[in-house]
Amino acid sequence: MDFFKTDSALYDEWISKGIDMGLAILGALLILFIGLRIAGFTEKHLRKLLGKSKKMDETVSQFLASLAKYTIIIITFIAILGQFGIETTSLVAVVGAAGLAIGLAMQGTLSNVAAGVMLLIFRPFKVGQFVEVAGHSGVVKAITLFVTEMDTGDNVRIVIPNGSVWGSSIRNFNHHDIRRLDQVYGIGYGDDIDKAMDVIKGVLASDDRCKTDPEALVAVVGLGESSVDIVVRVWCNASDYWPLNFALLKAVKEAFDKEGISIPYPCRSLYMEKS
Question: Which domains are present in the chain?
Answer without folding.
Answer: 2-105 (1.10.287.1260), 122-172 (2.30.30.60), 178-259 (3.30.70.100)
